[in-house]
Amino acid sequence: MKNTRKVIMMIVIVCLVAPFALVAQGEAETGPVSFEFWTTETQSDRMATIQVLVDTYEILNPDVKINLVPVDENEMATQLQTASAAGNLPALIEIGAENAVAFGSDGLMDVVRNGELIDKIGEDEFYSGALRLVASESGDNYAVPFHGWIQGIWYRADWFEEAGLEPPTTWENIEKAAEYFYNPSENQYGILVGTKAEGFTEQCFTQFALSNGAQLFDKDGNLIFNSPEMKEAVEYYARLAQYNPPGPQTWRARDYYLQGKMAMFFYSTYIMDDLSLQEKAAGSLTGENFAELAGSDFDPDLVTHTQMVPLITNTDTAGFGVVVTLGVINQPDSAAADAAVDFARYLYTPNAYITFLHMAPGGMNPVLKGIASNERFQNDPQGIFKHYGAEKMAEINSGMNDIVTFSIVDGNRITAASTITTKQIIPQMLYKVTQEGMDVDAAMDWAESEMKKLID
Amino acid sequence: MVILVKFCKKFGFFLLIMFIVLFSLFPFIQMLSTSLKYSWDWGNPSLMPAKINIEAYRDLLGLGEKKVDLPESIQNLLDETPDLTEKQRDAIIANYLDTGDVFPFGKYFLNSILFSLSAAAVSLILSVFGAYSISRLKFRGSSFIRRGILFVYMFGGILLLIPLYKISVALGLGSTEEGTVVALVIIYVVQTLPVSLYMLGNFFRSIPYSIEEAAYVEGCSQMQTIWKIIIPLSLAALATVFVYSFMIAWNEYLYASVFLKSYENLFTLPLGLKALFVSKNAIWDRIMAASMLTAIPVVILFMFVQKYLAGNLASGGVKE
Amino acid sequence: MEQSLSLRRSLSLEQKKARLGVQLVLPSVIVIGLLIIYPVAYNMYLSLFKVNLVGNNTFIGAKNYINIIADATFWQSVLTTFLYVVFSTFGTTLFGLVVALTMNKKFPLRAIVRSIIILPYVAPVIAVVYAWQFFFDPVNGIFIHVVVEMLGLYDQRFNLIGTPEYAIWVAIVFSIWKSFPFTYLMIIARLQTIDNNLYEAAEIDGCSSWKKFLHITLPELYFVLGTLILLRFVWNFNKFEEVYLLTENVKTLPIYTYFKAFTGVMDLGQGSALAVIQFVLLIGLIMVYVKKVLKW
Predict the structure, then answer these.
(1) Subunit partners of chain A (3 or more CB pairs within 8 A)
(2) pTM
(3) ipTM score above 0.95
(4) Which domains are present in chain A?
(5) CA separation (Å) from C220 to B239, C187, C198, C293?
(6) Which of B53, B73, B92 is the C-terminal boundary of a domain?
(7) Residue B169: its chain A contacts at CB < 8 A?
(8) What is the mean pLDDT, run by run of 10 residues, along chain C of 296 residues?
(9) Where does residue B71 fall: left (phi above 0), alpha (psi -120 to 50 degrees), or beta otherwise?
(10) CB contact under 8 A, B279 and A43
(11) A12, A17, A27, A44: best mutation site toward chain B, by most B Cβ within 10 Å?
(12) Which residues in chain C touch residue A107, judged by CB atoms under 8 angstroms apart?
């Protein structure tokens, strides 16, 4: 009775007090300098590889302790905001360039140390196009380009050839092929463009808008979103979306292509990794296993029948890609920040860098010119260089230099465009047009008013 | 005629049960089916795999021979770092082989059990006494408390998360493993307490007061009555509340993702599942197998406590 | 001194009970209070600021609130939220009640059936969402394959989950599917305690099953049902993950909040203001409900 009451009080007291007792113990174990490195490579096999790099660095630098933390890209904002409120931000972060600019313009990134890191590696070593993507309006560096991917249209070269169609390089060719292969009664679809309100949709659309000379801002930073060129691009995009599989779609629908139910799809060069997995799966389908395949849609030769077009042409020619960056974050502890710079510098040494890039050959392309032609880099574990040929890979890699986005107009940084991108206004607009059947003018007016709210 | 009506009734009842079962289970049939398919079979609409593939389950449960090999790129890295001693090199490799699993199911499973059991136990103990108090005893402010506990659910997700994390770091909890466990368990307890209090409160109110009076006459104190009368009579409700609290902690993602991110040793199943789901190499057989394996322990737990639910308590001598 | 001693001795039974009551509930109140009061106050405070990621916040008064109230899509999403919450709450409660009554009858294999029907509730949301999407997938799903290819009920493949007209109803059915086991568990726990004598007496009086349900079962379940409806209402009002992962285009308030304040760089001030408004909307309804229906 009385005892029971005591027991409850005890439990409560333990719950409330125990933490303090534990804290006292915990503090002694940290080394002289320790910091957190947040990576967006959350898959545990990739984490393990990065951990090897961390372990190696720690052995070479015994007074530094690095805690590798996986953070889902979609949750980066929440995690940073939470850590910022609590005062335990990481010192180093791996993050997409648009996000680095958006967070950097809010004062998160340590522009001095990021500049220092670029100098240490050598500014000339980088593709200048990639560096431009992380520069602020005043020429500071919000982050340092680390690796990147190129977007392209991947298509069934064998189907195109059979139908006598031109490769999907121009607006006209793309639409013609999408219409030709769209055959829903046979459960076959022409193309995949993003129509859900999320990042993938913006990536597909950006390439079309820019290939039509449509911009969000002029080079002086005035909003010129509501232009005839932009409207044309939206209308064209809506027409293409008709040849999509039914309903709102995103990158996951690439599975339909792998199953031979789709002719073309937008995707990053990360698909090379998937295709090679697919090829491995096909490799195991020999002999008696083949009997099970009767009637299945699987095409063991899919990889050889797949080709990629990185540039789209209408009035202009545009390529799209994303550069992933490493960024040092403003720290109260300057020793941690300096250690972060030094560790980041280590990640750019050829040995560490190639190990990192080889986690996803094709998907992770170097931003340092010297690495692309490095023999060890070209000898990748998945055999992707062998498959696509050094020439194609060089073309993809040099794409790092030609990435165009809404946030750089004639070389001028437009920070507001990065904010608009991160707020996903354009994908929301495209969803309204393609799925809810909203009138193009009305949807664009809506998007414009949302953009104006963000700017002021 | 009567027989026909009876038959129709029985048949209707049978149909109803079939409907309930199918409605509950259809996505799980899909899940099971996908988890057993080979990748070349994913485009096949049939729920029956063309050929059964149990690799995913074997990988997750660590059955069969473990074959994490050292990738060439890592071998190269170590070969070309001349400053490493042989011993250091081996340590790095050992660490890699140890963590290179795609999904360390066993580790995540134990962590999830740790969090869920502690949260459910603490929540149950606090709520038995709290619920007895608000349902049986009158005191100033009791009605305020009854209504006030609902506040917990009024603000959703992220908005509570930031201040709570801030407090935990300010108190020093967030900077140690042990502290993080305590902080997260307390948060789960708070998330489940209101429901536990409401549900047990309602239940206690349904127990006839006359039984308690009889106990007082025999000289029991109030605490003894709770222990000897209320708890034994409420096993069904207690079991339900326990399963509820356990499950909330078992599946919780948002708080875990923020509080645990720096402590890889504490990762729970939902964190592992999410990492699998967002990875671009969608390995659907593995994802679905992992999902099945995450759901099953709770079902087993439930089957285990079910015997308390099945007993007809009213026949256990509770008569007015 | 002497007076106070005699006073303490004369503590009536009522007072003793009151003291015990406070002691028993105190641990719960302390734990909840500590963890809730600060965050709520913090949110109210932040809602008056433009919150910066780093550095000091700027006071902007009611601007965050004005911003929201002046937004037409906000009011639309209030409407969507009510539609979603009302239908999903009543659907869940009704179905949970039917299931509880069914499972309270004896039939073969009951123990197994009772255990497996809680699966929807215990499985992780993210996993079941993908299972639903696979099942109704327009290209590879079994559902479309059966209704279009095999039965020929429709002549075209369609995306049941993604189509905007259906999306809210899919979200409601999904919510019922996901949460009915909780309702069922709570109801059946209470059903077991209903005195069998009551039914026997009613039977002697010649009452039909329906009458028995109406006059015995339902009154006994009154509080449980009242509480379940209340909790479900509050929960579904704030439900984000279930709706967003399944069909992000059902713009309930939490999803509106997500797009408005949490995509990209967070606007915490705006988010806090939205939370406060949401809170005010909810609290009025709840207070009336708790007083009138639950009589607490």
Answers:
(1) B, C
(2) 0.87
(3) no
(4) 32-148+322-390 (3.40.190.10), 150-284+295-320+403-455 (3.40.190.10)
(5) 20, 10, 11, 14
(6) B53
(7) 86-88
(8) 50 78 85 83 90 83 90 91 95 96 88 86 86 90 90 87 88 95 87 82 84 88 88 90 85 88 83 89 82 71
(9) beta
(10) yes
(11) A44
(12) 52-55
